[in-house]
Description:
Elements lengths: L1 E10 L4 E11 L6 H11 L19 E4 L2 E4 L12 E5 L6 E3 L2 E2 L2 H9 L28 H7 L7 H5 L1 H5 L6 H11 L7 H9 L12 H5 L6 H10 L4
Parallel strand pairs: 1-5
Antiparallel strand pairs: 1-2, 3-4, 3-5, 6-7
Bound molecules: iron/sulfur cluster and FE2/S2 (inorganic) cluster (FES).
Amino acid sequence: MTITLRVRRSDPARGERPAWRSYRVELRPKMSVLDALFAILEEQDATLAFRYSCRAGMCGSCAMVIDGREGLACQARFEGARRSVVHVEPLRSLPVLRDLVVDMGPFFARYRAIDPFFVGEEPSLGQPPGDPAVVDPDAGVRPLVSRQIDCIACGACLSACPTVAMNDAFLGPAALNRAFALTNDARDRAHRLRREAIYGEGGVHACHSVGNCARVCPAGVDPLLSIRMLRAHAPE
Length: 236
Ligand code: SF4
Ligand code: FES
């Protein structure tokens, strides 16, 4: 049995405009969309560009739009597919470098805007650092945050978000989700620093609550929930 993969291809550096190209691929058991892209690369067209690393749904680098919906190519399988034609496109709202490879720069620039790293207590000069802080597993906020820290920075939510597409200043679901996770870490010392980004022009109030982010996230994160929680604690 074969399947037709229609791939949205382009090479902006060479002035090539996006165009659909069709490839027929022999289906193998448990074949993923990433496997099919490899089959094209190895057997039909060595110029096809796509990104991958872990092939196990962990690294997020193979995120793309498959039949109109964001997902991980290494996790999307053809089994049970009713259609014999599958469309594959690069992520939206990010510049295309070539074929299915996008520039993740604008995604990480948004991420950086909220200072996405943990800022701990500075140890006093000449003193050894104290014991690691203990986070109570029974703390009320813990189950909520546990789910939200699973982000693999794949960019699928940014691609699926219509507000990102309309508003360049919007920080987007992944960055605000990360801000929420850090805001709920009692050990973190940078809450004040992040407040301006979270509640500023491109922050949580710019979100239109469409919720595509939660629907497409391959890691089960719900960025809209994080945005709602941040909104609920907005300064007066
Ligand atoms: S929140 Fe989900 S969809 Fe968005 S970048 Fe993280 S893992 Fe990807
Ligand atoms: S290759 Fe790592 S998530 Fe698909």
